[in-house]
Amino acid sequence: MTKNSIYLLVFAFVFTCVSCNKDNNNNESSSDLTVNTLSAKWDILDSNSPYASFEFNKDGNYIVVENDSADLRSLSTNSKSTLFKNNTVRAASTRSSDSNLSPIHFGTYQIEGNNIILSGFGLIEVISITAEEFVFSFTLEETGDQHGFVAGKSDEPISSSDRTNMLCRTWIIEHCTIGGENFEEGIVGSIVLFSKAGTYLVLYEGAGGVAGLSEWKWANQEETKLYYSWANWTDNWSNNVVTITDLTTTNLVIQEGYITWYLKLKP
Fold first, then answer.
1. Exposed e or buried b for every residue in 248-261, given b needs 16+ CB within 10 A?
2. CATH number at residue 189
3. Largest alpha-carbon pair distance within the chain?
4. pLDDT tens digit string along 191-219?
5. H/E element holding 187?
6. Same structural domain for residues 107 and 126?
7. What's the pLDDT tens digit per position in 95-146?
8. pTM value > 0.85
9. Rounded Cα gap, residues 175 and 162, in angstroms
């Protein structure tokens, strides 16, 4: 029996048991579903799944990566295949050729009982969630297609600290300066997201919905500089280093060469 077959059998068994519990009004999994237990990156264990990962943060945002990018998470900021729908962005990567596309979906989510509503994308019904495993069914809003998933919590390569906790949020760019002069066209309102799983998302709303999904890590012990990579942790990190000149619970200022980015916490 293959590993994927085992995952499917596990899901079917859990789903049946939980369904019975619901009939007896004794479903305990909903009490385990909170923002704190959900906030993580969850990697789908079945390699044949249509999705590679579901990620949630405490600011109420989700990132879903389709399975085409299971082995390469980087998404090009030069992507031309972008679609907005109800606060969801779908951006294709260039990978090694234009035929290899890795769409992502980004938006807001809400927890209602034992359900997670992904704005403009679909509905998750939680079967069980622990510190390491997430079992759920997902219904795609556009088609009504439903699938069952077993996911494991992704490693968090970014160590927890006060500055890490402040940075790992969802930010909005207020403006930027280039060589001391203000530059706002296509920049204001853009979204930047960091997570402890090493996720670095940039969504340039003012530039036709261009999106990029990358990785980041601290570049020094003082946590005043960070690296970002567009090549799934295999890039030469020293080529992409920026300095954080201000970081609070509500404001973030990043210096990147002659460019200074001013961001505020997304409301």
1. eeeebbbeeeeebb
2. 2.40.128.280
3. 66
4. 999 999 999 999 876 545 567 888 999 99
5. none
6. yes
7. 333 333 457 889 999 999 999 999 999 999 999 999 999 999 999 999 999 9
8. no
9. 25
Contact (Cβ atoms closer than 8 angstroms) between residue 231 and residue 238: no
Please indicate, yes or no, whether residues 144 and 167 belong to a single structural domain of this protein: no
Cα gap 257→94, rounded to integer Å: 26
Output the DSSP codes for 206-232.
Answer: GGTSEEEEEEEEESSTTS-EEEEESST
Amino acid identity, position 194: F
Q: Are residues 221 and 170 in the same domain?
A: yes
Neighbours of 33 (CB within 10 A): 21
Structure tokens at 69: 């990018």
| Domain residue limits at 32 | 3-153
- By the 8 A CB rule, do 245 and 253 touch? yes
104 and 185 together in one domain: no
User: What DSSP assignment string belongs to 54-94?
Assistant: EEE-TTSEEEEEEGGGTT-----TT---EEEETTEEEE---
Unique residue bearing structure tokens 């012990």 = 221
